[in-house]
Amino acid sequence: MADDHDNTPENGAFPPESLLPYETWLEDAYRGVMLSALEYVSREGLAGEHHFYLTFRTDVPGCGDPRSPPRAVSA
């Protein structure tokens, strides 16, 4: 069946807001995959020279290096 409507963001049309929290589910799923991978590697190890690169955002309120003195945050 053909869709005669050009409902694209370029034409100012956006999909309707979902009644289901898909974004939250996806975020939870991504965290679950990461946790499963880390748990697996902690038990089984990584093959050869493989390794993970982990990065952390420390500019999020309430997050930081506990060894560092607190820094002033302007509002």
Automatic annotation (TrEMBL):
<dbReference type="InterPro" id="IPR007481">
    <property type="entry name" value="SspB"/>
</dbReference>
<dbReference type="InterPro" id="IPR036760">
    <property type="entry name" value="SspB-like_sf"/>
</dbReference>
<protein>
    <submittedName>
        <fullName>Uncharacterized protein</fullName>
    </submittedName>
</protein>
<dbReference type="Pfam" id="PF04386">
    <property type="entry name" value="SspB"/>
</dbReference>
